[in-house]
Amino acid sequence: MEIIYVFCMFSLLVSFSYAAVQDFCVADYTAPSGPAGYSCKKDEMVTADDFVYSGLNTTGNTVNIFKAANTPASADQFPGVNGLGISMARVDVAAGGVIPLHIHPGANEVLFVAEGTLDAGFISSDRNTVYVKTIKKGDIMVFPRGLLHFQVNVGNGTPVVALASYSSARPGLQIVDFALFKSNLSTELIKRSTFLDFLQIKKLKIVFGGSMNVVLVFAISSVGFVLKAANAMSRVDLAAGGDVGLSLCIYTLWQTEVLRSIGRLENQTEKNVGDGENGHGLV
After folding, report:
1. Which residue, 69, 214, 222, 228, has fewest beta-carbon neighbours within 10 Å?
2. pTM for this one?
3. Please, are residues 73 and 93 in contact by the beta-carbon 8 Å criterion?
4. Can you give the pLDDT at residue 275?
5. Strands in 136-261 per DSSP E
């Protein structure tokens, strides 16, 4: 028994000493990443630039449905933090904007408000207690790992700039709205689990760009066409115009309605989802 104890202690000492000599592990983006992060770049390939990141000095794109942007500086963008258990992000929230309910599955978060005023809070997992506080310039607030949290700009027209610090090089991000309405989760499952109305779910899927059943979309959009066609039929003088006039009337109404529906779907999706490229959106 004593031999096993000594062996375990020796193993721990060896692992600790190895960790102590490993000064850093700059991410090697040419190699695949795994749950533990990126592989380490060879020491002779590491430069001072690997430990500097300038991505947070630019205002994020807040032209989206939330009027907000999250610009990360995690191991995926900043190679120097790989393996260090830390990362940051810049948060921009325009007037009237909101960072919707979301979680960071891999990290605790500390948020520092550099400009503006936020109503910020999180929801506990044991009793679903909501902890909300108005935080202003210079304040910080902590959000425990894995808990739903949010921030709302309440600064009377003043944009918010905040800096988030995480206890992981890759904290992860999952937004509730996107998980439900920008995924391929079926409408029926969403309806049964959230009790939302069928048409409400379809509308939100259109807004966020989730998977849609094209036939159902056209069926919904065609309701207006059917009503218009019925109205047109009641007004057509069959004795004078005949079936040709009726067919042309119905076809014209159908074509117009379909084109309008397609235009509305494309415009609404493009306008509301916003730009999520390069980490400057919430996507």
Report:
1. 214
2. 0.73
3. no
4. 47
5. 140-143, 149-153, 160-166, 174-175
